[in-house]
Amino acid sequence: MRIVLLTGISGAGKSVALNVLEDTGYYCVDNLPPALLPDLVNRLALDGTSALAVAVDARSASSLASLPGEYRKLKEDGHEVKVIFLTANTHSLVARFSETRRSHPLSHEVHPGQNPAGRRTLIESIAEERERLSAIQQLGHVIDTSEMSANKLRAWIKDLVHSENAPLTLLFESFAFKVGVPLDADFMFDVRAIPNPYYDLALRPLNGRDAPVIAFLDAQESAEEMFQDIKNFVTKWLPHFKRDNRSYLTVAVGCTGGQHRSVYMAERLARHFAPVETVVLRHREQT
User: Which residues does ATP bind (predicted)?
Assistant: First the structure.
């Protein structure tokens, strides 16, 4: 059975992701205590279900610690198991809870000593949830939704589902340093040392996928050197991650605005590795 364990921080987009998985044919279960996972898998296997997505969150605190063990057991039993962990920075999470006027799930837990009312504040609840889920975050692929629209998250989840049969998916992601570094990067490269097309008024409205920008950057010796350095680094270390049974490796490439140099470099790296690896390409700042 193909199994996706969907987890992460409340407010980071688990409901959006679970709906995408349901639309792509997964049998979806929300907020399942991890201790019940083996029984659910066995029951659905008998019914002929081939794809299952389970959302797990910090509300299942009593059995959350068992999830890494259940994950390994499912893999040992021959199931194709992927973990997707959604996160976001605290500023974005606070803004989302304020916009929706929802309370954080852990804020309802009575916890004397946190504040006079005996309940956690929103900031305290987010911090507590990060702590509870920290061990699970190491199991799978992390997606940082801080600066991401719901539509972009849907597209990224679909990309991961389509690449799920690969032993390792190599993700190249462009981003803007001025917006903030991505929380989901395994490796991060700074290409701001390359001449910036932004200062050419004819190139400013374009991006790193447009032919004039590509021609400009192809002509820069530093761009070629940077590409070779990143390519060689990834080529050298990728086999080690495969031997470690990693499912995903995210390589983030950043420039100032996330429009020209980082997009160009991520596109070029993706084209280089696509013939021999399963590659997913993301541009965080592109609509």
Answer: 8-15
Superfamily of domain 2-163: P-loop containing nucleotide triphosphate hydrolases (3.40.50.300)
Q: Residues comprising the binding site for ATP?
A: 8-15
Comparing C-alpha atoms, which of 220, 279, 275 is closest to residue 249? 279
Contact (Cβ atoms closer than 8 angstroms) between residue 21 and residue 53: yes
Sequence letter at residue 30: D
**Binding-site residue ranges for GTP:** 57-60
58-to-192, 193, 239 alpha-carbon distances in Å: 39, 42, 34
Q: Quick one: tokens of 172?
A: 């190249």
- Answer for the pair 153, 84: CB distance below 8 angstroms, yes or no: no
Angle of helix 67-76 versus helix 37-46 axis, rounded to 10: 30
Query: Which pLDDT tens digit goes with each residue over 96-133?
Result: 998 887 888 887 776 555 555 567 888 988 998 898 88
Whole-prediction pTM value?
A: 0.71
Residue ranges for the known binding site are 8-15, 57-60
Give the model confidence (pLDDT) of 49-102 as tens digits: 999 999 988 766 666 778 888 888 998 888 988 889 999 999 999 999 988 878
